[in-house]
Design goal:
Helix content is 61%, strand content 3%. It is mainly alpha-helical. The protein has a two-stranded antiparallel sheet. The longest helix has 22 residues. The two termini are 18 Å apart.
Length: 177
């Protein structure tokens, strides 16, 4: 497992722990999806609902795979073990990546404008310089938009234990090679 992947997972765990209590709970995912939906007011309800469903599947996969005592809480060590195991988490990540990336395509063009991209990632809690660096790495067009497919692929890369030196590393504060 690459150090970059572990760093990305640490960052995401911290951001998803919306109440800062050191564990992930269903309420953290509900709060996060509400923040993201509010960050893109022009997204239609179908896109927002799909994004919320992606967050819900993410949580349900974690809870189903890891919450052996059914207390509704996932620790960092439990989280890391699951999200960096493609055989356990690829389906949830695929749904999450697709719904999250597509929510930013508010006009159905297959492109995401910088303000929507920025709003969504700020809603998750990422830092603005990291968001801007990733947006630039994804190759915006002359209208300052990126391809949904490129963003979706990079979300999947973010959770890949064998990937390093990728644009997604920029969200965790690491430079891509």
């Amino acid at each position: 497992m690459r150090d970059e992947a572990v760093n990305r997972v640490k960052v995401v765990f911290t951001l998803f722990d919306a109440d800062g209590n050191g564990v992930l709970e269903r309420d953290d995912f509900d709060l996060m999806s509400s923040r993201v939906a509010a960050a893109v007011p022009d997204a239609d309800e179908a896109r927002k609902n799909a994004m919320r469903a992606g967050f819900t599947r993410y949580w349900n996969t974690l809870a189903g795979e890891l919450d052996a005592d059914r207390d509704g809480r996932i620790t960092y060590d439990e989280y890391r073990a699951c999200v960096l195991s493609p055989e356990r988490f690829d389906g949830a990540i695929g749904e999450f990546a697709a719904s999250f990336a597509r929510m930013g395509d508010t006009d159905g063009s297959g492109r995401v404008a910088r303000p929507d991209f920025t709003g969504m990632l700020r809603g998750v809690g990422f830092e603005l310089p990291n968001i801007d660096a990733l947006f630039e790495a994804l190759g915006p067009d002359d209208a300052d938009r990126i391809a949904v497919e490129a963003w979706e692929a990079e979300i999947r890369n973010f959770y890949a234990p064998d990937k390093g030196g990728i644009p997604a590393d920029l969200l965790a504060g690491s430079a891509a090679s």
